[in-house]
Write a structure and sequence with these properties.
Layout (H helix, E strand, L loop, with lengths): L1 E5 L2 E4 L4 E8 L7 E7 L6 E6 L6 E3 L7 E6 L4 E6 L8 E8 L14 E2 L3 E6 L1
Parallel strand pairs: 2-11
Antiparallel strand pairs: 1-3, 3-8, 4-5, 4-9, 5-6, 7-8, 9-10, 9-11
């Protein structure tokens, strides 16, 4: 399966963006989907994730209450709604999928397939 992330762009602080991750050549069904981000000069960090079964969601403390992850199984897409954006949210955002379980869903190791990333820039 290949992942395609889209929806990034330039937005002012306090604004919103909605990222989407679509699967091609396969399906998200049965897999957890995570969002990670990487700012210049920093490592890739966990942002949010949604489990395959039950749809449990997980968030980094830095985005709780501002970001929301959801999945549309009919369209085989996962979205990340980002509100109240801050300059520190500026990064390349990646979606990933894998057989992540509760203990690994917030870690890079929980995922085996990665999309190409989409740039999010928040101006102050």
């Amino acid at each position: 399966v290949q992942l395609q992330a889209s929806g990034g762009g330039l937005v002012q602080a306090g604004g919103s963006l909605r990222l989407s991750c679509a699967a091609s050549g396969g399906t998200f069904s049965g897999y957890s989907v995570g969002w990670f981000r990487q700012a210049p000069g920093k490592g890739r960090e966990f942002v949010a994730a949604i489990k395959s079964h039950g749809g449990s969601t997980y968030y980094a403390d830095s985005v709780k209450g501002r970001f929301a992850v959801s999945r549309d199984n009919g369209k085989d897409t996962v979205s990340l709604q980002m509100n109240s954006l801050r300059p520190e949210d500026t990064a390349v955002y990646y979606c990933a999928t894998g057989r992540a379980i509760t203990s690994t869903i917030t870690t890079l190791g929980g995922y085996t397939r990665w999309g190409q990333g989409t740039q999010v820039t928040v101006s102050s």
